[in-house]
Amino acid sequence: MVSREEIDRRYRLVRDAMAEQHLDAVIVCGSEYTGFEGAVTYMSGFVIVHRYAYVLLPREGDPTIIFPAEARYVGEHGTSWIEDQVFAERPGKYIGDRLAAQRVGVYGLDYVMAVRDFEATHLRVEFVPFDVEFDLARAVKSAEEIESVRDSVRINTEGFWAFLGAYRPGKSAAEVLAPAERLFVEEGCGRLTMNMVLIGAEFAVARKHTILGGFCIPSLEIAGPGGHWVEVSRALGEPNAEVSRMVEAYEEYFEAAKSALRPGATAHDVHRAVSKGFTDRGYHLGHVTGHSIGMTMIEHPKVGEGIDTELNENMVFSMHPHVIADNGVDCLYMQDTWLVTADGGEPLAGLPMRTFRAGESRS
User: Fold this and answer.
1) How far is residue 74's CA from residue 208's CA, in Å, rounded to a whole number?
2) 340 to 28, 216, 262, 354: CA distances (angstroms)
3) Is domain 4-137 annotated with CATH 3.30.300.30?
4) What is the pLDDT of residues 80-98, one digit of tens each?
5) CB of 349 within 8 A of CB of 319?
6) 0.90 cut: is pTM over it?
7) Spatial CA neighbour of 27 closest among 129, 132, 101
8) What's the distance, CA 44 to chain centroid?
9) Considering the domain 143-347, what is its CATH architecture?
10) With CB atoms 3.0 to 4.6 Å apart as the test, which of 86, 196, 241, 265 could cross-link to 203 if both were Cys?
11) What is the pLDDT of residue 221?
């Protein structure tokens, strides 16, 4: 249960960002698409299980949560701490009527807001993109949030051990992932899981016909009962010579991140520090090196070239340099969730940065 102090803190931070952009209100969009529901949960306590919802936070006064009326049930409405709950035939028309002639920031304008609502509203309301501002307002986690993050990491790490316990070459990806998914459900993750298996340079959905060979990488991304997403994974099996060179670079990244993820450093500084082992070996990184993570799976700032956002204590980052060899097949993609502390980066999973063997036990 989110405390009243935490709710007030979240609204205060968003309103501070709102004031800097001279906004009259903010619309926070969320949808059932995995990873895009968390902003609404962050602002309301409501978890979307069907369709979409919006939270309207005015500069002053109480918030409103808006649901599309054609799907009366889009989740357990009573779980929201917002009392003003609106079921609109066309949420865009409702927003336009209520906010006409106002300057409104929108979190999710590019990817989340329903097209029909934008079309019904944008000529009457001055929409301003608010993704970066919203994410930066919530990037520094409270003690209450960090407790939720650590719980999610605990669950995800247990899921890794469950995957490793089931993994043997010749088994299907679905067969090996099933014990981890069962654990995630039992621990209260619900639908907030997005787990795949990396075989070669591409991710594979865990299907019965996807047979795992002597080397694979589970990509385990979950949010625990508190709603905070985390990412934890390690490679399994016997790496070839090319991937072994990548493992060495990963070991260097892991050590570099402990000092690089510190208050006052920029996301650019962190990227340069953790990518050095890869670039020194002639590799190019594919996927983004890392990113802030919270109740939305991917948040700003990302860790990358030219990103000058400064880190602050109690930011949380998912770090996962993605390296693919020139042959387009050999690759490595291992994930960990990090906490920025006054003394540097703390990897939260407690797993050594190395490959694990089939049948290996915790001891």
Assistant:
1) 31
2) 26, 29, 6, 22
3) no
4) 999 999 999 999 999 999 9
5) no
6) yes
7) 129
8) 18
9) Alpha-Beta Complex (3.90)
10) 196
11) 96
